[in-house]
Structures are given as C-alpha cells and as structure tokens.
Amino acid sequence: MKTFLRGLTLAIVVLLSIVAWTVLPWPVLLVMAVLFFLWTRFTRIGRQAGSATGVGISTLPQRVGSSSVVVVGIAGVVAVLVSLLAMGVGYRETLSKSGSADTAIVMRGGSASEVSSVLDHASVTAIAEAPGIARDAAGKPIASPELVVAANLPLKDGSGDDGSVQVRGVGDEAWTLRPDVKIVAGRKFKPGLRELVAGKGAQRQFAGLEPGHEIKLGSQTWTVVGIFDSGNALGSELWGDADIIASAYRRGSSRTSVFVRLTDARAFDAFKAALAGDPRLQVDVDTTLHYFSKQSEGFTKVISIIGMIVGGIMGIGAIFGALNTMFAAVAARAREIATLRAIGFRGPPVVVAVMLETMLLAALGGLLGGLIAWALFNGYSASTLAQGTVGSLNFELRVTPALLWTGLKWALAIGFIGGLFPAVRAARLPVTTALRES
C-alpha cells in the first residue's frame, strides 16, 4: 500500500508540475527561480542541496558519453517542435501583414473568402459611395473593386507539375490603397493589355515569371512585365487589369470583392452600418486585419496540433533516454551518495541534486535544439495552399523568442520527468545497500 501511495504521489507531483510549468507566465517562473536560489543559500537543507549538486556537476566530464544522450535527445525534440511551430507563426505573420485596421473588405453575404464571392456592378458602385471612405487628392473615393480567379502554372522545382496561383484583377485604385506594394523589377501592367505583374513569392515558386516572359493562363497568352514586393500574402499573387481578366474568364462586370481605405479605424462601424442599412446590398464587411488574420487560424491550429503530437512522441523517447542515463548515473555514484547520506545529508538535498543535474543537461539540450531550429529554419521560404483561398501562399518560417521559450520549457519538462524517479530512488536507497551495490 505504501508503494502504491508513493507512486501515486509522484504521479500527482509530475502532473501538477508540468501543468504549472505550462500555464504560469515567465515572470512567475522567474520569481520561483529566485526563491529557490535563496533557499539554497540561506537554509541548511538548501545549502546541502547546493553542495551535493556541485559534486554531481563536477563529475559530468567523466560521464560525457551518457550525458550527451540526454542533451542530444532533448535537442532533437526541441528542434523539431520549434521548426514545426515556426511554420504556423510565419504563415500567420504573412497573412496578418496583409491587412490593417483602417482598411476594409466587402464581399457578398455568406462568402467565406474572395473566390466564393460575386458582386455585381451596381453593388460595387453602391459600396464606393458609402460614408467613411477616405478620398484621394482628386476627391475620388479610395475603393478598389477586385476580381480573384485561379490559374495553373508549372512549378519551379523541376518536377514538371503544375501549381495553383491566385490571379487578382485590379485597377489604379489598388496601388493607391496599398502603398506598400512596390515594383522591384520591370514596370506596372498597362490597362487594356494582357499584361501581368508577379509577386516575389510567386516568382520564387513558379517557372516563367520573369519580366519579358510569356505565360499561358487558360487558352490565352499573357506577358509578365514586372515583379512587385509587398512583404505579405499579396506577394504570392499575379496582378493584371481587372477588365481584361474579367473578359478572359467570362466574368462580365462583376467583381469578387471591394477593398476600401477608411478615413480612420474608428470609421469602420459607421461604414459597416451604412452598408448593412442599404436595401440594395447583401454583403459582409470586415477589416482587412481581421479578415486575413482569420484566414490563418485553421492552418496555424493544425500545425500547432501536429507539432505538439510529434513533439510529444519524441519527448517520450527523450524521457526514457533521460531515465536510463540518470538511473545509470545514480548507480555509478552510489558510494558517493551513500557517503553524503552517512555524514548527515538528508533525502531532499539528494533529490534536488540529481534533479538539478538532469535539468542542467535538459537546458543545454533545449538551447542546442533552439539554436539548430533558428539556424536552419528562421527565414526559410515555404509555400502551402492558402486556407480559404485558391492559390499557393509563399511565406517564411519565423523562429521567434516566444517559440524558443516554448522549446526550452519542453526541454526542462522532459528533464524534470526524466530526473525525478532516479532522484527519488537515490534518496531512498539505504546507506548500507548503496555501499554494497558500489
């Protein structure tokens, strides 16, 4: 019964510790670390724990091989976890940069995305007349009716396969609405011609998107005349004249969406209310910041779940590696631990010493794994099918300080579990038994 209760107590301690370590913010954890340091300095048991820890750490060079198993195993877990989560962060940042609080998007009511929306010419005209829209120097509303369609182009990876690219039909208002979109090579397309400009992300992914080259969209030939950079999701698109694209895809005078610049962010509610109160319109209105951020939620959630599952599976393996290593270390140091117990060291200092040694190895593994993930994947270009759109989205992985902190927390959690049971065994081992085993 005692053995069962002890095992149950250990399991509860492990569970509560992991939950607290996951939920508590870093300032609270920092305070706890400071309190622990003060405990090792100003209490008798704490000083014993510090002395025992120093003895254990001093023998690490003699156990480089076994200790490296813990470090390398945990580093692998952290590197994989952080790199996977960096995909979600990069994807979310790319989409969130595509919008702002003082611009709005209007689509047909019930449309999940631009591609599923259709607005007729009368609706487009009515939207542009709504109050709250900013005006340019000529007094014209800054409203950009746009048409989004899908096209297939050969990928640049040499596989011979085609990929889906998003083609956006725009007018002059689109450049006014998005001053961050800059032509970096070639020139803008000319209205009335089958000319396109390609985003830098699309150029990296698809073949033939160099200024002066001709590409096939459907049955028609188009000329790429320029490359633009936007620093956001728009960089994965091709842009052309809205009227020509509408004619090529038999869309008439309809558009999929209208983007507008508001006088300021506070004008959004009035703008939305005006459109909702217009009996001619059945539309949904959102800020572009919220719209594009919402597009990233599904993908980010999936990547986070995959990362946690993969990290958890690898973490279990790392825990067993740490358990084996620390049980072996405790067995090799049985005489040393028995001597400490014989001269007056109690059980808790021994537990703390073994735990701190394991946590130190885990921290080294976490830092190494984070460094590997940052060196290999921070800024790495990737592409995927954009959630809620029809084209591939090009984005860069982002290894942020928050992700590195998450990886370090995982490493220390693995070290905590891997060191707890060997530490308890070392503290419970009778002195005579320990001397006999050594």
UniProtKB/TrEMBL annotation:
<dbReference type="InterPro" id="IPR025857">
    <property type="entry name" value="MacB_PCD"/>
</dbReference>
<keyword id="KW-1133">Transmembrane helix</keyword>
<dbReference type="InterPro" id="IPR003838">
    <property type="entry name" value="ABC3_permease_C"/>
</dbReference>
<dbReference type="Pfam" id="PF02687">
    <property type="entry name" value="FtsX"/>
</dbReference>
<feature type="domain" description="ABC3 transporter permease C-terminal">
    <location>
        <begin position="309"/>
        <end position="430"/>
    </location>
</feature>
<feature type="transmembrane region" description="Helical">
    <location>
        <begin position="350"/>
        <end position="377"/>
    </location>
</feature>
<feature type="domain" description="MacB-like periplasmic core">
    <location>
        <begin position="69"/>
        <end position="275"/>
    </location>
</feature>
<feature type="transmembrane region" description="Helical">
    <location>
        <begin position="302"/>
        <end position="329"/>
    </location>
</feature>
<dbReference type="Pfam" id="PF12704">
    <property type="entry name" value="MacB_PCD"/>
</dbReference>
<feature type="transmembrane region" description="Helical">
    <location>
        <begin position="12"/>
        <end position="39"/>
    </location>
</feature>
<dbReference type="GO" id="GO:0005886">
    <property type="term" value="C:plasma membrane"/>
</dbReference>
<dbReference type="GO" id="GO:0022857">
    <property type="term" value="F:transmembrane transporter activity"/>
</dbReference>
<keyword id="KW-0812">Transmembrane</keyword>
<protein>
    <submittedName>
        <fullName>Putative ABC transport system permease protein</fullName>
    </submittedName>
</protein>
<feature type="transmembrane region" description="Helical">
    <location>
        <begin position="69"/>
        <end position="91"/>
    </location>
</feature>
<feature type="transmembrane region" description="Helical">
    <location>
        <begin position="402"/>
        <end position="421"/>
    </location>
</feature>
<keyword id="KW-0472">Membrane</keyword>
<dbReference type="InterPro" id="IPR050250">
    <property type="entry name" value="Macrolide_Exporter_MacB"/>
</dbReference>
<keyword id="KW-1003">Cell membrane</keyword>
